[in-house]
Amino acid sequence: MFKSFLIKYGEIGIKGKNKYLFEDALVKQIKHALRKVDGEFEVSKQQGRIYVEVLSEYDYEETVDALKKVFGIVGICPVVHVEDEGFEQLAKDVVAYFKKAHPTLDQTFKVNARRARKNYPMDSMQINYSLGEKILQAFPNVKVDVHNPQVLLNVEIREKIYIYSTVIPGAGGMPVGTNGKAMLLLSGGIDSPVAGYMVARRGVKIDAVYFHAPPYTSERAKQKVVDLAKLVSVYSGPIHLHIINFTDIQLYIYEKCPHDELTIIMRRYMMRIAEHIAKETGSLGLITGESIGQVASQTMQSLAATNEVCTMPVIRPLISFDKQDIVDISLKINTYETSILPFEDCCTIFVAKHPVTKPNVNIIKRSERNLEEKIDELVETALKTEEVIICE
Ligand code: ATP
Ligand code: MG
């Protein structure tokens, strides 16, 4: 029935030059999302609107599902288009549409006509009125409500005539690519994939870094992170995942530093390395899945100690979320099932029985001095031997 989709996007704050960039990025992201859907689609900007035209057989559900994952889309309107063959024919088409799209036939409605082509022989008020009358005649249980209609029946007169009344909610946010790039510290847990999703939703392109510690962490744990990056990429677009071998650094910290400070010192090295890669690859910030108080390494004191080594903004979108709120989002974006697979994470191997919960930055810095002899070389080797996987 539907041969095209009108894409609605929020327009607040995107005027002038930004609007053009916003629309182009949105068109690009829509094309990207539809690549994996069977069927031929054409995505175009027309008179300040974005349309997806379907040029072949296609699967409606699959198409809508793909569009629902594109950030920047506020609403998806499945549209029927008909040829302009005079008003009487249009009235028949509109009645047939109403019957199919709103089969209960007991709703209130309002016709909202728009003449994008000004040579149409009736003006929009006349079209509203005359089509309204035809619908009332066809369906005795339907009523007009101009203030708060259950069905807003849009009729747009263009080269063809477009009819639509359904708005399927979109993902919201901003198109990926309109707000620079950031580096996500992606572990195999529940939180960091959600954090990446949330920042991508604001239009930020995402790269990721994962620290693994073979043989203490397995190939399967690494594969799990790759799988998570792929799941996030359904929304964010392709993710360059940098995989850093962290084993020697961890062992060296283990050898040289007090064990109750291991987690914090390790996290400081993760941030340093992530920032280094971020700078080299054009990211403007770091993203973590941290949330205040969730674990010992996320008390305010621990966050301060970790943050102290970074010069870039560290974006922590989950900072004030309860675990359940984070789980709810991970269920919604389909990362939860993968996140809870029971493969060890590099941090669980070396955790102390009683980690410091209120680290003092000066004491931590003093402990890190024990690493002076070899740490730079180890970091350099870790960077040199990184593996990059494009996840999409
Ligand atoms: P998550 O559920 O995201 O794993 P978590 O609750 O397990 O988080 P921590 O282990 O303290 O919390 O990690 C805090 C954050 O540090 C993570 O959200 C992630 O951004 C980053 N991080 C932790 N471990 C790694 C790792 N091995 N590789 C990359 N980033 C990591
Ligand atoms: Mg974790």
Automatic annotation (TrEMBL):
Coiled-coil segments: 361-388
Domain (THUMP) ranges: 61-168
Any single Gene Ontology cellular-component annotation: cytosol
Residues binding ATP: 185-186, 210-211, 267, 289, 298
Pathway given in the UniProt record: Cofactor biosynthesis; thiamine diphosphate biosynthesis
Keyword terms of this UniProt record: ATP-binding, Coiled coil, Cytoplasm, Nucleotide-binding, RNA-binding, Thiamine biosynthesis, Transferase, tRNA-binding
EC class: transferase
EC number, UniProt record: 2.8.1.4
Pfam families, per database record: ThiI (PF02568), ThiI_fer (PF22025), THUMP (PF02926)
GO molecular function: ATP binding; CCA tRNA nucleotidyltransferase activity; tRNA binding; tRNA-uracil-4 sulfurtransferase activity
Chief location category: cytoplasm
Sequence similarity: Belongs to the ThiI family.
PANTHER family: TRNA SULFURTRANSFERASE
Protein known as: Probable tRNA sulfurtransferase
Organism: Candidatus Galacturonatibacter soehngenii
